[in-house]
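Lab intake sheet, docking and co-folding queue.

SAMPLE TYPE: protein with bound small molecule
LIGAND NAME: fe (ii) ion
LIGAND FORMAT: SMILES
REQUESTED OUTPUT: full 3D complex as C-alpha cells
PRIORITY: normal
SUBMITTED BY: R.K., bench team

The fields below were copied directly from the construct record.
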Amino acid sequence: MNRPTNRPAGLVPKMLNHLAYVTHDVAATADFYTRVLGMELASTIFDDHVPSTGENFPYFHIFFRMGDGSTIAFFECTDLPPAAKSTHPAYDTFNHCALWVENQAEVRRWLAWLKENDVEVIGPIDHKGMIESIYFHDPNGIRLELTTPIDPDWNRHARQGEADLKLWVETKERAKAEGRDPAQALLQMIRESKKRYAQAG
Ligand SMILES: [Fe+2]
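RESULT FIELD (auto-filled):
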C-alpha cells in the first residue's frame, strides 16, 4: 500500500464527536437513548435549512451524550418519505454502530437490562478473542452493538492489519487480472486465513 508520507505530524481525529442518523420518531428515539441506553440529552437544534449545503430541509436535530462526551445524533425532518430498502440483507447486518462498555461483566449487565426492556438481543459473541459484543436494534432499525475488548491491544494490530489489507486487495486484483471470479478467490483466501486463526488458538 502506498501511504502518503508528507502528512503534518499528529494530524489525527481525536475521538468520535457525533454519528448522525435520520429518525422518523424522535420521541421513541429520545426515550430509547436516554431511558434504555442511559445517555444524556446533550443538545438540540431547530432549523429550516442545512447550514453546510443550504438545502431547505426543515428539521429537529438532537444529540445524546455518552460517557466520554462523544454523541449519537438524529435528525427528524418535517416531511420525509421512508428510506429505501437495502438491496441485500448484508447491508443491514454490516452497517452498525458499536459502543464501548467497560468490561465483560458489564456486557452481561447490559444484556439483562435490554431484555428487561423487551429489546431483542444477540450474544454475547466472542470475536476471535479480540472483543466481546451484544447486538440489538434501536427504534429506527439501526443496528447497535455494545462491546468490550478482550484483547487490550485489539485496536493496535497495525502490522497484521497492513498485511491483511494487502492480501485482500491483491487477491481480488490478481483474480481479476487472471480472469477468475474475484468472489471465489476471496472466499478461498478467507478460508485459508481462518485456518491461521484456528492454529493461533
Ligand atoms: Fe462491530
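REVIEWER NOTE: Residues 27 and 149 are 32 Å apart (CA to CA).
SIGN-OFF: pending second check by T.M.
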